């Protein structure tokens, strides 16, 4: 990837003439079945550009309570767009109840914000959602006159989990939506970068918003080259991450103090027994070289291309040793 970056042909993408950025945009648009794509600096910038393109001041979007686009993006749509979120509770599998979606759409009445957009996420909390759900939820949105957007930061994890050709699966998932955001960073291993996909008209408008957001990048081909490398070499291998995550969860299923909740992709959640302070456990794990995220009552372990099978086995040992030590303290 570093070599591909070093050797990338570049131009000025603010003027649309960086050949590597253009190649990436064409590649991902073709791959996922959209007319057009826009290379952006991050998933957050991608989702925010999408919100600003779909919605205007006084409009609202529907998203899950734990959706990245609602909870983890600094309220950007409200801060910069005058757009309000309408968060909905998740079911146990991370999906939204279609009845809740329908009920959340406001009548056309000056008392209410205008409901414009449904935003779904896949994978959500590491879980790949079913095709049936995507079909039902997006159909309900359309029946109510809403546009649909997929936060597919981890779309390729969902595609690999579906089995079969991951590129084909990614295209099938993306095909349910008017716009899609996908990350080349994180699991795909590029240092930065996401793509926002949609119709030609949608992407032209999103390009304006990207500029407003400070996301116009110039010789960005060095970054697009990393993303192209990731698309070519790091998609199929996501299956290794999923396997490592499953191995890790399996290796710890009988450990006292933690209940392992594998997601089916590259994340494992571990719910802690009452009285076990997850922040203390997380700090102890970190001192032994195992980094994870800690939330109240829960730890999150994420597997990616820099974690080998041997690392996974070592991680199991580290968790066992750390919990034994915490219990006897
Ligand atoms: C990480 C992530 C984002 C944001 O991506 P950044 O590049 O960190 O801004 C958006 N959505 C989901 C589901 C994510 O996991």
From TrEMBL:
One of its GO terms (biological process) is L-threonine catabolic process. It is an enzyme of class 4 (lyase). The keyword Lyase applies. GO terms for cellular component: cytosol. Residues 1-270 form the Aromatic amino acid beta-eliminating lyase/threonine aldolase domain. Its cofactor is pyridoxal 5'-phosphate. The modification N6-(pyridoxal phosphate)lysine is found at residue 186. Keywords: Lyase, Pyridoxal phosphate. It comes from the Bacteria. One of its GO terms (molecular function) is L-allo-threonine aldolase activity. Belongs to the threonine aldolase family. Its EC number is 4.1.2.48. It comes from Streptomyces triticiradicis. This is Low-specificity L-threonine aldolase.
């Amino acid at each position: 990837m570093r070599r591909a970056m070093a050797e990338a042909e570049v131009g000025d993408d603010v003027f649309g003439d960086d050949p590597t950025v253009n190649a990436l945009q064409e590649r991902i648009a073709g791959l996922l079945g959209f007319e057009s794509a826009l290379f952006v600096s991050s998933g957050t910038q991608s989702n925010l550009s999408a919100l600003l393109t779909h919605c205007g001041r006084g409009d609202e979007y529907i998203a899950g309570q734990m959706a990245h686009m609602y909870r983890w993006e600094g309220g950007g749509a409200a801060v910069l767009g005058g757009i309000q979120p309408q968060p909905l509770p998740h079911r146990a599998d991370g999906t939204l109840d279609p009845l809740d979606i329908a009920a959340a759409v406001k009548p056309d009445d000056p008392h209410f914000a205008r409901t414009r957009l449904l935003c779904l996420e896949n994978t959500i909390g590491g879980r790949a959602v079913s095709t049936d759900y995507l079909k039902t939820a997006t159909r309900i949105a359309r029946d109510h006159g809403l546009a649909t957007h997929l936060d597919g930061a981890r779309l390729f994890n969902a595609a690999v989990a579906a089995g079969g050709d991951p590129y084909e699966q990614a295209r099938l998932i993306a095909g349910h939506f008017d716009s899609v955001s996908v990350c080349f960073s994180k699991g795909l291993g590029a240092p930065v970068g996401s793509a926002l996909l949609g119709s030609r008209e949608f992407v032209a408008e999103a390009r304006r918003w990207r500029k407003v957001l400070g996301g116009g990048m110039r010789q960005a081909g060095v970054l697009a080259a990393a993303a192209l490398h990731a698309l070519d070499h790091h998609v199929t291998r996501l299956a290794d991450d999923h396997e490592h995550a499953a191995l890790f969860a399996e290796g710890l299923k009988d450990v006292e103090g933690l209940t392992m909740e594998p997601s089916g992709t590259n994340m494992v959640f571990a719910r802690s027994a009452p009285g076990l302070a997850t922040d203390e456990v997380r700090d102890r794990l970190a001192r032994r070289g195992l980094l994870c995220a800690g939330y109240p009552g829960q730890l999150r372990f994420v597997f990616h291309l820099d974690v080998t099978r041997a690392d996974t086995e070592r991680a199991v040992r580290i968790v066992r040793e750390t919990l034994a030590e915490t219990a006897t303290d």
